[in-house]
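Box 3.1 A note on notation
Throughout this textbook, protein chains are presented in two layers. The first layer is the amino acid sequence; the second is a token string describing backbone geometry. Keep the layers aligned when reading.
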Amino acid sequence: MDSTEEVLEALRKIPWFQELKEGHMRKFASISKIRPMKAGEVIFREGDTHESVYIVIEGRVGLEMFVPHRGKV
């Protein structure tokens, strides 16, 4: 499991987290974890419900959605 310090280090590299006060940053880090993903792994599917927020630190994410009369795009 990731330590709060490891998560803090990763979050501090993201510009929109740099504006948070230290206490807020630490709170966010304390309830966060770093989750490495494999290429092609599905994070979630359209219509799924989640209680999580995913922040991509490195790499890229592809989006696939269903469009009426066109199918998956």
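The first strand starts at residue 66 and ends at 67. The chain has a mean pLDDT of 88.
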